[in-house]
Specification:
- The protein is of the alpha+beta class.
- Among the domains are: 39 residues; 322 residues, 3-Layer(aba) Sandwich (Beta-lactamase), CATH 3.40.710.
- The chain contains 19 helices and 23 strands.
- The strands form 7 sheets. Strands 2, 3, 4, 5, 10, 18 and 19 form a 7-stranded mixed sheet that branches.
- A hairpin with a 6-residue loop joins strand 22 and strand 23.
- The longest helix is centred in the first third of the chain and has 39 residues.
- The protein is elongated, with a radius of gyration of 36 Å.
Length: 581
């Protein structure tokens, strides 16, 4: 090799060495810059990130508010239980598998579908609920081996328990997982995906009062996610305790006299809207709704008092009577009842329950004997529009506003008022045809009448007490329906004779005169059977209680409904002082 070639090679080598040196210096400077950046500019961020690898916030569930009856019985309470969940944080897949297999053996459950779901969780510190409502006896073997079960999380929980069971199921309701279509709304309010919420009854209506404010616990875990220590605790705030107007002993009595029959009994305070009794049969077990649904016994999740529509039958004659007087009839105005009535150019006769007829009859006797023919003729004096306006005044065709969910409004043919044929109008006048109402609507119409036109929505909440022991009473709103005193007195006289005068449709039930009860029977024709209605209030000169009895396929209102209502009033007057606090 010549001197020139050797020199050329030396120069190339020197250049490469310099380039490599400069690259190493550049990399070193970059490295120094990153270290400076981590330690000087982003210290707190990376410090928090490091802490999050072994320090985790953990939610502490808040006890749900308890529910009491007015007579001091528990309707809903909390029982301490345990929940188990799994987190993939710091856990190998094989370790997670072994943990799940152990839990399956202890609990007798199959969690195989959850295994992959848990392992794929991101961020990895999150967890998935496996089981809840576990007793101390069940959880003890797991607690003893918690240290050797990577990924396991055990937390104390509360199970809702309803001591009254099916007796007040339609009132209290029950809890369930958040429905998928409402999940976003609940998450926005701070709930978590696995939370239980009110699904029916008071549990649903007053969810915001009953649910508490969750607390927070900061726990330290090792590299495999196992519990080490509790570093900080922020206690939860319990939900509000609710005290209801419902009297559980009265409810139990009403349910007992209904026996195996299907129907509804409601008792309210006419002065303030308090609901003392709301029995709907058949019922279900609120402690285990799923088991109730699968039972061979008759079960209904519908609260028939507010969620089922029926023909109001002759109880609706209260509306027709008041409308007729408003249209110009007097209590002494008389119509002829021959047992049937023909509309002009109408081939089919409209019949009275007394086929032999009542002869010449005025308002008082028409109510007392429940004469259809009188009301067929009186409704024509006011016309469809005026008549339906009175029905609306008395609450038909609209929800009462009771503080229970899913109330239905019933139906009135308002849309077809201008095209209503005369035959339909006659059927409506006696509560038949194109009309339907819930039992609570029918009772409310009599409460409105009994109070002289004062409308107070029925309600179940009496007061609530917050976590600090402060009480807040529920004060219902009210408004006044225009009602002429003389018209009310005329109709009231007829209602009094229904119960207290020989020949009255409820007279044979034997209401003691000192109770001063006034009411109306009804018999709704349904296929080949009849539903029995009876509604009353007492004392009629100073009303304080209203009672509705409705029995599906019960026959006549006077023979079935009235005797049951008499038993209800008997219980009330024997325990009268308990209902006026």
């Amino acid at each position: 090799m010549s001197y020139y070639e050797e020199s050329q090679t030396q120069r190339i080598f020197t250049v490469r060495i310099r380039i490599l040196f400069y690259l190493l210096v550049l990399l070193f400077l970059i490295f120094l810059w990153r270290i400076a950046s981590w330690t000087l500019f982003h210290q707190s961020y990376y410090q928090d990130l490091a802490k999050s690898n072994f320090i985790h916030p953990q939610r502490l569930d808040a006890p749900r508010g308890r529910i009491y009856s007015r007579d001091g019985h528990f309707l809903a309470v909390n029982r301490a239980t345990y929940s188990i969940s799994l987190s993939p944080f710091g856990v190998e897949k094989s370790e997670l598998h072994n943990t799940i297999k152990y839990l399956e053996g202890v609990l007798g459950a199959d969690f195989s579908q959850k295994e992959e779901e848990v392992y794929q969780l991101r961020p990895r510190w999150q967890r998935i609920l496996l089981a809840r409502n576990l007793s101390l006896e069940t959880i003890t073997p797991i607690l003893e081996r918690e240290w050797s079960l990577p990924g396991l999380r055990i937390s104390s929980d509360f199970k809702r328990y309803y001591p009254a069971g099916s007796l007040a199921a339609h009132i209290g309701g029950y809890l369930g997982f958040i429905p998928q279509d409402k999940l976003k709304d609940y998450l926005d309010k701070g709930y978590e995906r696995d939370d239980l919420v009110g699904m029916a009854g008071i549990e649903y209506s007053y969810e915001e009062l009953l649910t508490g404010i969750p607390g927070r616990e900061i726990v330290q875990r090792d590299a495999r996610g196992r519990y080490c220590a509790t570093l900080e605790t922020e206690p939860s705030v319990p939900g509000h305790d609710l005290h209801l107007t419902l009297d559980l002993d009265f409810q139990k009595y009403a349910q007992s006299i209904m026996g195996s029959r299907n129907g509804v009994i409601i008792v309210t305070n006419t002065g303030n809207g308090d609901v003392f009794v709301m029995a709907s049969a058949p019922s279900y077990d609120s402690n285990d709704p799923a088991a109730s649904a699968a039972s061979a016994e008759p079960v209904s999740f519908l609260n028939k008092a507010i969620q089922e529509n029926y023909l109001p039958a002759s109880t609706f004659k209260l509306v027709t009577a008041m409308g007729g007087l408003d249209a110009g009839l007097t209590p002494q105005s008389k119509f002829i009842c021959e047992g049937y009535y023909y509309l002009p150019q109408w081939k089919r006769p409209f019949k009275c329950d007394t086929l032999s007829g009542h002869g010449e009859i005025d308002l008082y006797d028409a109510i007392k004997y429940s004469c259809n023919i009188y009301f067929y003729q009186s409704v024509q004096t006011m016309g469809a529009t005026r008549f339906l306006e009175w029905a609306l005044h008395f609450g038909y065709g609209a929800r009462t506003g009771i503080d229970l969910p899913f109330e239905v409004p019933g139906s009135l043919p308002i849309q077809s008022v201008d095209s209503m044929v005369p035959g339909d109008l006659l059927n409506l006048s006696i509560g038949q045809g194109h009309i339907s109402a819930t039992p609570i609507q029918v009772l409310q119409s009599f409460c409105i009448f009994a109070s002289g036109g004062r409308i107070i929505p029925p309600h179940l909440l009496k007061y609530f007490v917050d976590a600090e022991g402060k009480r807040k009473d529920f004060i219902p709103g009210s408004w006044q329906l225009p009602m002429r005193y003389e018209d009310r007195q005329a109709v009231l006289k007829g209602l009094i004779e229904v119960v207290n005068s020989p020949g009255g449709t409820a007279f044979h039930a034997g209401f003691p005169p000192e109770w001063k009860a006034a009411g109306k029977t009804g018999t709704a024709e349904r296929k080949d059977k009849s539903d029995a209605w009876f509604v009353c209030f007492a004392p009629y000169d100073s009303p304080e209680i209203a009672v509705l009895v409705f029995i599906e396929e019960g026959g006549g209102g006077g023979s079935t409904g009235a005797p049951l209502a008499k038993e209800i009033l008997d219980y009330y007057f024997l325990n009268r002082s308990r209902f006026h606090d």
